[in-house]
């Protein structure tokens, strides 16, 4: 009986002392902490368009236009926040908040139905004015091409 009580006490102590996990099941928020581009797993079959986007993002960042990009092709890419599927502006705000402890610059979200833009402590109006002139093309290659065009347009305007 004493052994059981000692084990129970040890488990309770471990539970109280453990730090809460910060994982939220949102793949892009984890990935963009260390990378500049998050791509849907389903876009791997478009290596040329993927390379063009990642090369452009690296180039504009090197030139001083700091931006990170999330290209979301399906609800699956949102992990546990699938409620934000097809809501690029809302997801951009959510993702910006998720990254804000580490990253406080521009963030572009591209979904099949539109763009989302976030820049903490800045109004997104100028970004959305630039993005309003663009349309997201259909299909995986179109999604990547649209993301590339959006980064170019934002960098040119910025």
Shape: globular
Remind me, CATH topology? Answer: Diaminopimelate Epimerase, Chain A, domain 1
Number of domains: 1
Q: Give, in order, the helices and strands.
A: HHEHEHEEHH
CATH architecture: Roll
Query: Structural class from helices and strands?
Result: alpha/beta
Main sheet characteristics: 4 strands, mixed
Structural features, described:
The structure is a single chain. By secondary structure, the protein is of the alpha/beta class. The protein has one domain (25-157): Diaminopimelate Epimerase, Chain A, domain 1. It contains six helices and four strands, in the order ααβαβαββαα. The protein has helices spanning 2-17, 27-31, 47-62, 88-99, 125-131, 139-157, and strands at 37-39, 67-71, 106-111, 114-118. Helix 3 (47-62) packs parallel to helix 6. The longest helix has 19 residues, at 139-157. The N and C termini lie far apart (70 Å). Mean pLDDT is 88; it is low at 3-23.
What are the key terms here?
158 residues; alpha/beta; Diaminopimelate Epimerase, Chain A, domain 1; 47% helix
Short summary of the structure?
The protein is α/β, with parallel strands linked by helices and 158 residues long. The chain has helices at residues 2-17, 27-31, 47-62, 88-99, 125-131, 139-157, and strands at residues 37-39, 67-71, 106-111, 114-118. It has one domain: Diaminopimelate Epimerase, Chain A, domain 1 (Roll).
Topology:
Layout (H helix, E strand, L loop, with lengths): L1 H16 L9 H5 L5 E3 L7 H16 L4 E5 L16 H12 L6 E6 L2 E5 L6 H7 L7 H19 L1
Parallel strand pairs: 1-2, 2-3
Antiparallel strand pairs: 3-4
Helix pairs in contact: 3-6
